[in-house]
Design brief:
alpha+beta, 147 residues, four-stranded mixed beta sheet, 9 strands, Immunoglobulin-like
């Protein structure tokens, strides 16, 4: 029984510390300005809630990183589909990177990972179900800003 308990405690510690590290990596002064295909903008400071987008739409995102990151390389990649049409490979002198994400035509969650050194930020996009809106989770849209 004791070996099982030790393994469970070790596993729980590993999981909890991993969650803490992810939260610490996206906290602080990091935020994103999202420009929807209809021209509306919203500022995102809490990256735990997905950004609601229309099917097959292109969304432009500017991510503000700490100013100390200026001139450093970043990697941007979609994790679940959709396409990153363009992105900055280097953090600007103002500490920002810009990217354009094109959602697929299928309802669901699409994540884009921004990696800067050992830090990562996951932007989450939810393609809205317009036929059955009750199936959509809570999302950030141009009508709801976190400011």
């Amino acid at each position: 029984m004791k070996p099982c308990l030790s393994v469970c405690v070790a596993f729980a510690f590993a999981v909890c510390s991993g969650v803490w590290q992810l939260q610490s990596q996206i906290s602080g002064n990091i935020f994103a300005t999202v420009q929807f295909s209809n021209g509306h903008n919203v500022t995102v400071t809490d990256f735990s809630e997905p950004i609601g987008v229309a099917a097959n739409s292109t969304t432009h995102v500017t991510v503000a990183l700490p100013g100390s990151a200026a001139g450093e390389r970043v990697n941007v990649a979609p994790l679940d589909g959709g396409q990153v049409l363009s992105h900055d490979a280097v953090v600007s002198g103002k500490g920002t990177i810009a990217l354009a994400f094109r959602a697929s035509g299928s309802v669901g969650l699409y994540r884009v990972e921004v990696r800067h050194g050992t830090h990562k930020l996951r932007l989450q996009f939810w393609v809205l179900d317009t036929a059955q809106p009750e199936n959509n989770p809570s999302v950030i849209t141009a009508k709801f800003s976190q400011d």
